[in-house]
Amino acid sequence: MCGRPESLRACTLAGLAASVAVVAGSVAGGSSFASQLPGAWFFGTPGGPLGSLASQSRDAPLGAVLAVYGGLVVLTASWLVLLRHLRARPGVPVRRVVGVIALWALPLALAPPLFSRDLYSYAGLGEMVSHHLDPYLYGTGVLGSTRFSLLAGPLWANTPSPYGPTVLWLDGLAVAAAGHRVLASLVLLRLVAVAGLALVAAGVPVLARRAGADPAAALALAAGSPLALTTFVGAGHNDAVMAGLLVAGLAAFDRWGLVPAAVLCALAGSVKVPALLGVVFVGWNGPGGLAPVRARLASAARAAPVALATLAAVSWGSGLGWGWLHTVDASTKVVTGLTATADLSRVVAWVGHLAGVPADLAAVRGVVGGAGLAVAAAVGAWLLWRSPSTGTARALGLALVVVALLSPVLWPWYLTWGLVVLAAVATGRLRRGVLVLSVVATFAGASSVKHLVLSVARANLASEALLVVGLAALVAASARLSGLGTEAARPPRAPAQGGSASPVGGLGSEGLAGDAPWPLPVAGRT
After folding, report:
1. Which residue in 63, 221, 445, 508 has a CA-CA distance of 20 to 30 Å to 53?
2. Contact between residue 111 and residue 236 where contact means Cβ atoms under 8 Å apart
3. What SS3 class is residue 116?
4. What is the pTM of this model?
């Protein structure tokens, strides 16, 4: 059934309805999913339009929880249906998938910043930059009792920015262009994140074609995932800009060579430092798949000054200088508890306590976190060495996922660094891994798990039963929906005797076929 055009339309509309449900539940859920400070958005906040719909309790109403998580379940199922459809019928034009993704993203783009207050902190940092206040010396608290500071919250009030100069320069431009109005600034900053997603959508099909994969399917896997939609569009995280520039750099590497790739990867690194791995990987693979080590070292030596010059131009041209190199670890002020290193630190401290050996958790966390980064560096070096045979994008994507998983702090959207790159080239078990990580990170990032558990625990028994039954029904219905792809998962029928097999599948009356066959992969590049 998924192969039919009407089923694809139903899947698209189901994803749209799911996005609307997520937004509605987030607005009704109060501070559990979105800021409830007055004036935090155009609607759904105290004193504003639809403000009365939002819960004023510290716990989200179970109906709102059902709408948010049920909507994410249906959105995930719709995404899986789309992926099965594209896998079964390769050759769907990329523009058709772009339309589906845009439709799913539209409600999230109109919603208040979801599941995170980072967009408010970007606005506060942009206000600082526009007034020539150094964000690498001060936090947003330096702005005083202004809406820019109050909406950003107390967490970063006295903490310098961990972000690079490129994104802070963009933040300053957005706030200045908005006339220093908070809501207009938030709109422009979200558009900056959407532009990053657009770069991903432009670059991933290029990488997929070079790898011999279906560009439309790769695009849906990278930019259509619930993780990308909720974190890049709904929350407006600047990781979208980093991911977009990084994917653009890899695409430029395939088309135009080392120098443009090094420039774009360096720009991505000037958003968040881990993206500088892109410079290392494209430099190492510049000569191609069969080049000797000496040629690779020479290529890396050519990429390094290009990247350094780019970083210098951005740092000095933005007027922000090199202070960002001293504040890259500012995000470690927050402990998420999602990382392997954080969990291991607690275990070590607990064992030490049982053994009568005093162990300060902060000190243990520092040691274990350093060990985690050392392991990530070793794995990254191994991936770099093997990248001429495995491909640049595959090796780089895996390295970024490992860095995210073993870093001292892990937020779910950090996984997008590597997942959007891997989406272009992933097959088999690696593709399944991308799917699993994307789904898990989506639900982990929707709200504090601890807060959600406490909210449910404080509810009455009847409400809990209703929530469980409702979510179970949605999961069952979504599983059935995604199961529609079973027929589509079968290989296309062989052509009738005397006919010729086409590398591009058609979609009947919808006329969606027409993309030319993609070229074979180039060793050492993608």
Report:
1. 445
2. no
3. coil
4. 0.84
